[in-house]
Structure formats: structure tokens, C-alpha cells
Amino acid sequence: MALLNIGADNRDDAFYRYKMPKMITKIEGRGNGIKTNIVNMVDIAKALARPPSYTTKYFGCELGAQSKFDEKTGTSLVNGSHDTAKLAGLLENFIKKYVQCYGCGNPETEVVITKNQMIQLKCAACGFLSDVDMRDKLTTFILKNPPETKKASKDKKALRRAEKERLKEGEAADDELKKLKKEVKKKGSSSKDGATKAISSKKKGNNSDEDRISPAHSQADEKEEFDDDDVQWQTDTSLEAAKQRIQEQLSAVTADMVMLSTSEEKKSVKKSPERERKGHENGTNGTNTHERLVSEIKDGLKKASSASQLKALLTTLTGTPQEVMDALFAALVDDVEKGFAKEVLKKKSYLAAATQEEGSQMVLLHTIESFFGKASPEVLKEVALVLKALYDNDVLEEEFILEWYQQGLVGSNRNSLVWKNAKPFIEWLQSAESESEEE
Predict the structure, then answer these.
(1) pTM over 0.70
(2) Which residues does the UniProt record annotate as the domain W2 (predicted)?
């Protein structure tokens, strides 16, 4: 099957990754019943990530002819005789209006219908939201037949939750297995001592029985009695045991040298928490610590070309996880007053890298609560948009968002305007969750 690059502007790019099949048409019928059948419309629509009914309806709207897509058979028909080149040109117009991002031109977009019944294209590459011209005839059809995207995203999040539960169960099983191994080790060592004593007494007291037993049979019995496959032998790796082995194996002079190096390593390990404590004391108050961390992160962002490099930078900073997250968020959105949610969306990769550890999502939510609690009224209005953007991009998960919101309503800052402005998104999240459970 011949493939074409999606979008006329990318026609000459031999390495363009987004491709679609070349359109194939067929004229059917004659007279007043003549129709044009787009044979591979299903494959084309699949490559564009749009329902085939959208493209078929668009042809009908632009040509002023009746069009129909049969969901059962996958047949796309447009009344009248239309050549392939004309339909291919209309398909290019459809791609520009309803597939390609208006910001970066990437065709990897998703159709989003807002509460105000407006159609937008959400770009997965740059995060740009493109506003579709609602004067176009096809928009009415799209509003009546919205794309099925919520169920797919819910299924993806449900799979992610199931994977987390499976990992937790696996860790619990590993802990149980370790306990059983320790018990088997204790029982095996005691049973081995008893068996050794019994065999030695038998050899001393009854030599005549050994003479009557054949050598092969005797070896088999001994192997059976001393079979310790179930016993797990381990080496004691504690510091005291290491010292004892060193004293036994080395001379007095060399043993002292090894002991000295071991003790120095131990002191250096203990010194790092002390340095960390002194680092906290160097700042006269929390404000100085915050400003210092923000400055260090900004300097690091100039050198960090990827989210992984930023994550490595965060591990070197001196401060609590909450202080580091507060400073990171402030450094990413510094001096932003208008379009705050869009700016957060641009920096989502950095926030995703900082929320990989367990419990880090709640830390980020507390950072958002603290930041918006001190923000201006214009910025405060966008708290729901920020939560929605981070949720859609899998930076924050719904279970942590709902838990954070419930804690806030009963906490000391329950009268904060953050909860009032976040409430619409929380209600939407709860309703979406209930719909998913019903399905």
C-alpha cells in the first residue's frame, strides 16, 4: 500500500514519521444513483486518529452532496461522481482544520469539546490548544457525535492503578518469603546438629551393622541424612563479623590498616547528615533557604537540557523534599502572570521528573496549595486549569488529588480560596470516576 506524509507541507520530507495511505476511490452506480466510494477511508481515518464518519461528512459538506459512512461494513459513500484528486485536496483541507496543531503543525492531536460547546485540538507534542473555527459546517456534526476518548484514558489509568497494586502485592510476597527463609535457616541449623550427633553415636556403638550394609546403600543413606538443600547458608556481613574475619586472615599490622580505612569510611558516611543539618542552619530563616534553592535550580535549568538532568540536580540540593519542590515550582513559573496554566503545561516534563518517587505527588500538591494561596486573584483562578493539565499529562493521579482535596477541607487552611477555585475540577473528576465505575 502506497503511503503519503500527513500534511501537504511535509510532502517532500522523506523522514517524516506521520504517514497515511494514498486515497483509493471507486465510482459505483449510474444515472441519478451514481456514487463515489472511498475504498480505504477506514485506514486513512485511522492514520489521522479521527473517526471515518468525520472525513466522510466533511466531503459531503464541502461538495454539497449527501454522504454516509456505514459503521458495520466500513463503507464510505458520497453521492455523485468525484475524481480522486479532488477528494484528496478536500482531505488536505480537513487535515489542516481538524488534525494538525495550529502551533507546531504536528498531526498528533486530540479533539476536545469544552463546556461551552467549543471544539479544540489538544497537541500531544507541544501542549498547544488550537481553537477550531465553529462556523464550519462539520463542527455541528462533531458536537452531536463527539469522539470516544474519555473511556480510553480511564482504561489507561485503571491499568496503571492495577499495575501499582500488583507491585505492592509482589513486595509483600517478597517480605513473607524472606521471613520463611530465616525460619528455615534456624530450623535447618538445629536439625543438622542433631543429625550429626546421632550418626557419630551410631558409628561408635554398632560396627557390625555397617559391615552388613552394602557400600552403595550406605552412601545413599548418608546422602539422605545430610541432604540440606532446604537450608539457606548466608555470610554474616555485619561490621563486627568483618572485623573478626580480618583479624583471623591478616597479620596484626595489616589488620590495623584495614580497620583504620573502615572506620574512616564510617565517619564520612555519618558526616553527610551533619553537613546537611549545618546547611539548614546557615540560612537564617525559611525565606533565605527558599531563595537559595530557587537560585540554585535556576542556574541548574540553564545547564540541564533534559528532565533526567534536572532530576539528578534535585538530588544534590540541600533541603527537605517540600522545600525543594516549592523552589522548583517557583523557578519554573517565575514572573508569569497571564496564561499561567499554559506555562505549567510547557514545563510538565520537569514536574513529571520530580514526581517519580513515592509520595512526591502529594508534595507537589502541597506546593500548588501553598503557591496559589499566596498568588494574585488572576493567577488563583487558574488553579483548576493547572490541576487538569497535570492530571491529563499523568503528572498527578486522581487518587492523590482527591485525597489532597479532602485533607484540605478539614485542615487548618480549609477557608483558603484554593479549595473554592479547585472545586469545579474536583467535581468533574469525581463524576468521571463514577461514570467509569458504572461502565
Answers:
(1) no
(2) 263-439
